[in-house]
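Input record (Table S2, row 1081):
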Amino acid sequence: MKDRYANRKYILIALVLVAAAILISRLFYIQIVDKTYRVSAANNALRPITQYPARGLIYDRNGKLIVYNQAAYDLLVIPFQTSSFDTARFNEILGINMRDFRGRMKAAIKYSRRAPSVFMKMISSETYGALQEELYKFPGFYVQARTLRKYTRPVGAHLLGYVGEVDDKLISRDKYYRSGDYIGTSGIEKSYEEQLRGRKGVNILLVDVHNNVKGSYAGGRYDTTSIPGVNLWSTIDLDLQQYGEKLMRNKTGSIVAIEPSTGEILALVSSPSYNPSLLVGRVRSDNFARLQADTVKPLFDRALMASYPPGSTFKIMNGLIGLQEGVIRSSTLFGCNNGYHAGSITVGCHSHSSPNDLPHAVMMSCNAWFCNAFRYILENKNYSAIGEAFDHWRDYLVAFGFGNKLGIDLPNELAGNIPTRSYYDRYYGKDRWKALTVISLAIGQGEIGATPLQMANMAAVIANRGSFFIPHVVKKIGDKGAPSSLYTQKYITGISLQNFEPLIEGMEWAVNGGPGATARGARLDSIIICGKTGTAQNPHGKDHAIFVAFAPKDNPQIAIAVYVENAGFGSTFAAPIASLMIEEYLTGRIKRKYLEDYVFNLVIKPDAKE
Amino acid sequence: MQKNSNILSRIDWVTVMLWAVMMIMGWLNIYAAVYNENHTSIFDLSQRYGKQLLWIVAAIVLAVFVIVTDNKLYFFFAWFIYGFFILLLLLVLVVGKEINGARAWFEIGPFSIQPSEFAKFATGLALASFLNSRRQVNEFKVMAPATAIIIAPVILIALQPDMGSVVTYFAFFIVLFREGMSIYVFISVILAVVLFLLTLIFGTVPVALGIIAVSFIVLAIVSGYLTTLKALGVMAVTGGVSFLAGHYLLGLETGFIIVLAIVLAGAVFGWYTYRHKLKNPAVIYAFLLCGLLYLFTVDYAFHEILKPHQQDRINIMMGLDEDPYGEGYNLNQSLISVGSGGFTGKGYLNGTQTKFKFVPEQSTDFIFCTVGEEWGFLGSTVVIGLFVWLLIRLVVLAERQRTIFIRAYGYGVFALFLVHFFVNIGMTIGVMPVIGIPLPFFSYGGSSLWGFTILLFVFIRLDAGRTEYLG
Ligand SMILES: [Zn+2]
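Output record (zinc ion complex):
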């Protein structure tokens, strides 16, 4: 066999020799020539001290500090470096007994004799002080500085979230984290974890047998400095947040307040809540278990994670869509005979004057008017079939942020639910359903679900007359930072400016109007509030009260949604709470002390049955 | 069976001995790497050294199995085996288990198996089988399908993504080189890989400037200083103009500005070289331009085509990002380990770095740390010497074959071992970027040990029966 390329084997052998020569000369350099790697005495040991950076601080929209750090210390041990010492004195300083000591030591040895492990987590500054003075007596032990979260006020637990220890699953997925590291587990702490955490550093120290630090290994050549976390400026108004939580005490529900012109969330209240300090440090796991077992679910963030049928507040949406589609006008009159009657179907209504135009129908929250309007929307002659009209109706709702996650910068947001055409096709058969089949959608009942956040966003859209920014809770990342570009983009809903006016007029009258107005409990003398009440049907007990509003009518500063579970009609409790929130935010002080006291003292048991 | 009765006498026992010695040394070092006074039984299956012992026993069984099979099997079933492993690589993308961000593992009961470790053997067989029937490797119609055989598994493995394994597959170009691939193509491939690695370490712009500097040095050597000075002058002018226009007027990125300057310089200088009929500057210029375009294409592909999470995953696999304690933490720690070993090492089981669990992946990709720390420069040199011995032995065995099939397969084995050996030890001591690939027979892990054992023993088996094949 002829082989023209046989000589190439020499090139390949040369390749092997060159590779080996490169490796051996490099090894020669780092193992023999370069002395920096050498540990001078055999007894000296290297000790890696992780430098944990301080977590970023969180401020409110006015620069008030909300979350900061306090020092804490972990006591570490390298078992093989320990020798006999005064365990009695040691235990006395730490406040543990001999059995406890043995247990902890055993656990450390089980992990490794030569690698450091945590002997005691998060010892206090006082204990640390006492221990530091006598640490030379306890070879093998050393202290590592950590930081723990501290709160200026006991508010905003759901919003801020908490910091927990990383679990094994995450450690295997993300190489940044090591066992014992902290990580934001919920709220802002979780969604801005990467900014808040900063970057760890490490100091490699040389330590002699007497537990004395002899200095940095290799002159600090392999040390890295930690980088502190970035500070965040939240959109939250801390005073308003605190006031909202106070108003909601002894009630179940939530408040979401948004600045309409920016989408910045001013307050995000979920009740019942808890003191965020409960989930810090050594008490965290016990308290967490306790809160998790609590039947009123204080860990559950109702503002983002509870979906309710929006009830009568949803009439605004149907009014807007009807006007935009041209199937009704503001002046369209519909009568109401204590409800809507069509064939075998009856949707009841309370007694009020009749017939009404759109603003009056909103003001009195007339069910019959909106059933008629909804039928016009679905039986629109411009579309070939009800399915097509339904798709258009749904598209408007999606443009308002219903039926999908809005994309707030907090974890675990719920999408809510707006049924699709195919859902009804599946349920009733293709095109086997009519406007009357789904008439409960006219008044916000049925297969429809929205979160308080989505309802507050709807109020913001109305305040803006047709557009919104995605609601968010952080306005500035770092001193010179900006929010994520996600939150500076304006969304248009496709409803024309002029179509908002009749509905806003109706909402104004609902709060400020004469006989038949449904939300007079929200009225404020100095400022025109526009609002709409609602009642979410609750199959498990008393209905939930809802109120959405914005104020002032012109150039609105605040849009709000208030939910009070098991409180019955929206006008009774939700409207005054919204009104007080608006007064607090816009005027900075409450004139209506009687109303405030009434709300403060109100107790609504979450389990109340009819 | 006559041929089986004397098969033992025809086996290359030198290679078998090297294999056995490396495996035992590997095990001793894994024992040291995970050594813990609390678990001292070497059969402790909860510990890695216990498991590795099990893998070694299984590897011996595998080796015996490979030796007793009919050697013609590998020739006739080469394509079938290749197809089977391509299928497995497809399957692992769908039903595989994700470990450390790569969907590269099948989970079977308590065991995880990595098909890409075995696909190397299949690719080597298929490539050898293909080359066996071709005479002119230099031609495009041979080169193209041969490249396709190598690239198919590469693409599937890149999707996992396991960039370490991807790099190793480029070793097969060494086989093509031995079988007659154009030396220019071979040098281009090597340059492409080197440039890629350099870009990973230093970034695009410094490497681009480096290429330009090298071009001028080569130009000075080949064409003399006068031409070089003229070229430098042209380059300075076009570079300046491009920078002013590109940076201030158009707001271009540095990479674009460099390419723009080079293209402009080429236009001006091209006219000069044409008029003076200078061939060398033109060739050097062509290399320079191709090099830069390649560089920025790779950079563009990485940053623009890949989605951020894919970039992250590649960065993580390359050890370039998510580095907990700053740049090159792993590398620093492994340098300290190896460097602190000194001339004779700290002695077996006495490594302090090893025990501190400083170096992650110490028993897998960074096993050489333990060698360096506990056995010192002497021990490290012995290990490197063993690999050199094995590699040269493989060249000798491959060269004595009478069929292209066995020779090409043998060179495939050679090439894979060479790349694993150089890249793995190189990354541990900081002459290579951190690419997570195992050191053959040393690193912990059943898949890699079995993969390498099959790879090697199929060649030993083919070599033992070489007289039965007719070229
Ligand atoms: Zn009515």
